[in-house]
Fold these 2 entries.
Entry 1:
Amino acid sequence: MTGISSINVLTLNPSPLVGNQPAGVQSVATTAAVSAPAATVILGQTNVVEINTYNARGALPNAALQPAWESSPLDKVSFTMGGNFSSSSNSNASRFAGLGAALLSQLADGKKNISQSVIQQSGSKPLNAAELAAAQAKLHGSNADSTISLTLKTASGKTVTLSLSNQDDGMAVQAQVEGGDLTTEESAALEKMAKGFQSAIDGLTAEPPQLKLDALTQFDSKVFSSVDLSTKLKLGDNSVQTLEFHADNQKRSVNMSGPSGDLQLSVDLKSQAILGNASQQAKALQSYLKQIDAAAARGHADRDLMSMFKDAFSSLNSNYPATRATSTPATVDPLAPTNLDRKLLSGLADFSASMTQTSQSSNPMRPSERDTFAYNVSQTTRLTGSDPQNRSIKQDQQSSLTASYHQALSGGQKLKLSTNAESQNYLFYQVDDQASSQTNIGYKDGELTNASVTQSASQTTHISKYVMGHLVSQTSTPVNTSKTQSFLNVLEQALHPETADKTSSGVARLKETLDGLQDKVLLDSYPKKLNS
C-alpha cells in the first residue's frame, strides 16, 4: 500500500423512491436527497481521504439543478428523450430524433396512455409544485414553441393520438388510445407505421425541410380509416413553419405555410373509375413533375420550396388505395369509363395543387419591382349521362404561372442591387403562362360519337432593361398555340376489330397507336413543343 497518499471514494446515493420517481430523480416538489456515503475506505492512518458523494443521476450536490421529469424515466420513450435532451443542440431535429418512432412503438406494445415531460430548471432552487405543473401544461399544450401531432382513426372506431413538443428548456410527449384496446392487427399496423412517422418528422425538421409523406399515404386501409398529421415548428430565425396533412380513402391533402411561401395540394379519390393502370399513372406523374420543373426554371422559383412541392405532389399522387378492383357490381359507377376510354385520360385522380412564394423586394431603388412566383396545376373530370349507352366524359387539365424576378445584364455577373446607380444594371422579367388540355368522349345509343383532345399553351415574357438606373427598353414576347385532335377512328377500330386491319402489322400498329394516346392527352405548357 506504500506510495498511495489519497483515494477519491465515489459513492452512489442509495436514496429510496420519492413518489413515483426513481432514485435520484427530482419529483414535482422534492429535490434528490444526498445521503451520507454508504462506506468509507481508509488505507493507512496517515493517508488523506477525499470523499465525494454523487446522487443517482451522477451529479455533485453543488451541481446545477437537474432536469425535472414528469414520471419515472425508465421506458424506451424516456430514454430517447433523455438522450436527445442532453444533446448540446436544442433544435427540433436533435430533440425529435427517433422520438416519434419510439412513442408509436411503445403505444403499439400495449401502453394505452403515455405522458412524459422533462424540463431543465434554472436559478438557485428547484421549481415548486405549481410552477412545475404550469411548465408541464405548457409543454403538453399548443403553446409550446414546436409541436407535432398524429391522429389515427381505426376502421373499428378507435382513435389513436400522439403529440410531441419542444422548446429551449423542455420537451414532452403524450399518446393515448380511445374507444377500446388495440387488437393485435392494429398494434402491428401501428408498429409498421413507426418508421414512416419518424421519416416525416426527420424531413420536416431538416435544413432545408423536406416532405417525406409516402408512408403516411400508404397506411393499411383495412386497419385505419384516416391519418392526420399537424405540425408547428419554430425555425432558427424564429419564424414558424406549419403543416396540415390528411389522408383517407376518399381524399388526401397537404397545406403548408412557412417563411418562404405556401403550398396547398388536394387529391380526390372518390372516383376510382377514372384511374389508369400503374404504368399510366407513373407516366402521368413524371410528365407533371417535368412540367413543374419547367415552371420553376422559367419563373426562377425558390429551390427548396419547389422541392417540397414536388415531394408532396408525388406522395399524394402515388400508391392510390386499391379499391376499384374489389368493388362489387352494385357499387360500380354505371357511367364509369371503359379501359378503352382511359386511353384518352391522364390516368391520375383529380387534384389541385398550388405554390405561392413569399414576395420579396430586392431592389431598394424600385421597391415596387418585387420577386414573385405563383404556380397552380389541376385536373377535374366529369362523368355525365343517363346510362352506360348514353354518357359523356370530360377531363380538364390546366396550369398557370405568374412570376417576376431580377437578373444581371450579363449571365456571368452577380447582381447586387443597392441605392447606388452603378448597381442598377439589370433585367426585370415578368412571366405569365397558361396551359390546358381537355378530353371529350361521348356515346349515344352505345355508339362512340366523340373522342377528341384540345390542347392550348401560351407564354408571355415582358422584359424591362435598366442601365445605370434608367429604363432603356421594354419588350414583350407573347407565344401561343392551340390544336384539336380527333381519335374517333382509332377508338372505333378498337371497338369494332372486325373493321380493322387484321394483319399482324396492322394489329401491331393499332396497339402502338392506342398505347401512345396518353402522350397526346397530357398537359404541355410549352407552345413550341405543343406545335411539334
Entry 2:
Amino acid sequence: MKHGHVLWAVAQVAAIAAAEDIVLFDAATTPSAAIASQAGGVFAVKDGVLEVETRGETGYPGIRITGTWDLSKCSRLTLELANRDSKGELPLTVRLDNPDADAGKSTGVFVERVKIPAKSMQSVSVALPPTLPHAREINGRLTGMRKGPFTISGIVADLAPERVVGVAVYINTPKLDWRWGVKRIVAQTGPAVEVPAWMRLSPEQFFPFIDVYGQFKHREWPGKVHADADLKTARQREASDLAARPGPKGWDKFGGWADGPKQQATGQFRVAKVDGKWWMVDPEGCLYWSHGPVRVTPSTAVTPLDGREDYFTDLPAEGTPFAHFYTTRDELLYPYYVKRNIKRTYDFSSANVCRKYGEGWYQAFAELAHARLRSWGMNTIANSSDKHICLMDRTPYTDRFELKSKPIEGSHDGWWPFRDPFDASFRADVRRQMVAHKQEMDDPWCFGFFVDNELSWGGPTDLAAWTLASPSGQAAKIEFRKRMQAKYATVEKLNAQWGAEYADWEAFLTVTRRPGAGANGDLAEFTLAIADAYFRNIREEFKAAAPDKLYMGCRFAGRGPEFALRVGAKYCDLVSFNIYAKSLDDFKLPAGIDKPVMIGEFHFGALDRGLFHPGLIQVADQAERGRTYTGYVTSALRHPQVVGVHWHQFGDQATTGRFDGENFQVGFVDCCDTPYPETIAGIRAVGYKLYEIRKGALVR
C-alpha cells in the first residue's frame, strides 16, 4: 500500500464471486424499490445493467441504493461500471452512508471518486478505510478544504462500517450530460488497510497540523523544508540546473520558431493556418505555439485564517516582518475572498519566497520566473498572472477579465451569474475593462485576452428560460417580448403555441414561470440570440479598443455546449477550452467549425508530496505526473487546430485551501517555491522538442 491509497482498475470486467463478499447491488436481482434517483438521474435496467442518464448543471445527479449491511470485515469495494459516452473519462463519485450521514459535513460517510474511460465497462476497486479513533472529532474541526488529511485517496472517510444503509453513485456537479451504467457493487473481505500512525493521533496531538512554511506537519516526503537553510540549498541547486539548461535552441526572443518557415511580420501576434495546421505567428513573423502556466505569481498559496487559527504553527505576531504576508494577495482572486466575506488570510508562498531570496525577494522571484519558463521549454505566461512580471516584456503573455455588468437575474450562478448582453451596462463594462487593461493592450508582448471563464451556459433553451425567470425590468426579457410580439402579434397566439396563460403582453414581463414544451423552439432561438449578442458585443468593443489583440473567447468548461461554441466561433479569433483529461487525442470541434483552439487549463496531481488533494486529474505519483504532462502536450501539438496549452497553475495551492477550499497539488513549484523535478523533466521532454513535434518530424 502506498500512502494509504489503493485504487485498482482492470481493463476487463472480472467476476466477483467470493462467498463471504457482500453484494450491495446487482442490476439483475436488486429490487427496484431499493433504487432511487438522485438529483434527477433517470435509470432503467437493460440487459443486466442499470442504465443511468444524468444532466449537467444539476448538482449531484445519479442513483442511490438502500439496504442494511455490516461491512466491518470488508476491506474494499468493487464496482462494475459503464461509460456509454464518447466525451472522455467519466468522473463518478461513490458514497457509502450511515443512518446519521451528513455528506456536507463529511460525517457518517465514505466517499471515493473513480474515472471510467469513454465507451467502456470496467471493474474498479477502492479501498475501504479502517476505523480511526479520533477522525470524527478532528474532522469536525476541519473546514475550508476540498479534501482534508484523513484520506484514503484524498476524500475524508468517517464511516461506521457495521451500520451502512445506503450506497450512492453519482457525478459531482457535472457541466455535461452523461450516459452511464452500474452492473454490480460488491464489498469484499480482507485485511484492513494500514494507515500511518498520525491518523490515530488525539486532537491535542494533531493540532496545529500546519508548520511555519505552510506544510503538513505529520508527514515526511522528498523535498520537504524543515529549516530556512533548506530553502537556501534549494535555491543554489536550482541555479545550477538553470545555468546548465538555459532553454531550447532555435527560438526567437518571443519563443517563436526561429528556424521554421517565416510569415509576414506585423509587430503583433496573430493566428494563421499554415500547411493545414493552425498556428500563432509572433511579432517577428515566426510561427509560435503557446506553452506556459496560468497564475505566475508568488501568491499561489494564500489561505483563509478566519476561525482556523489553531491549524497553524507560529503565525507571525503583528508588527513583525512576516506579518506583512497577512496583507499580500493575488489581485485576480481577491474579489472572491471579498464575495465570501473572508477577513483574514496568510500568504505562505510569498512568505517562503521572502525567506528564500531575502531583501528584494519579489523582484528576484519575478526575474527568476522568466528564466525558469525558458529553461523548462515554455514561452508563455498565461492569464491571471502577476501584472508586473508580465510587463517586464521577457516572455509573451495573455490575460483575462471577467464582466461585472448587470446579470440575467434568473441565471445559474456559477463562478458569476450570466451577464445580460442586451443591457446597456454590458458594452459599458467591456469598454471599462479595456481601459483598465490599456497598458497590456498596447504591449506587443501581450497576444490577447480571454473574456470570462467557465460560464454557466445551461442547455440549448436555458438562457432564454432563465430570462423568463427574471424580473420585469430585465433587458433581455424586454427584448424577448419584443421578438415574440413581432412573431405572434397577439398574446393569444403566443399562449396557444406555448401552452401559457399570459393575460397580456405586460404579463409576459411580470410572470416568471417557465412555459410549456410548446415554447421550446422559441426558447432555443432566443438562447442563441443571447449567445450571439454576448459574443458580438464583446468582439465589437474589444476590437474597437485593441484591433491587434486576439479575442480568445470565454474558456468553456470542458468541451462546452455546442450551441454556444458555434456562436462563439463566429466572433472569437480563437476558441478556448479548459479540458482536464490525460490526453487530447479524442478532442475535436463540431463539424463545420475550423478555428484555432487554445487550451486554457489542464493539470495533474498526486498525493505523495504532502498535500491532501491531487486536483481534477489524479495520477499515482510525481513520476507519472511528469510522464502524463509530456503525453498531454504532445497530443495537443499533434492536433491541427490546437495552438497552445496553459497549465493550471504555476505554484501549488495552500495545503489548507484557498477561498473556495481548493487545495490542489498542481504546481510546478510547491508552497516553498521548490520545483517538482519529475514534473520539470516532463515539461522539458516535450518543451525542448515543441516545434519538431508540431512540424510532425517526430513520432510517438
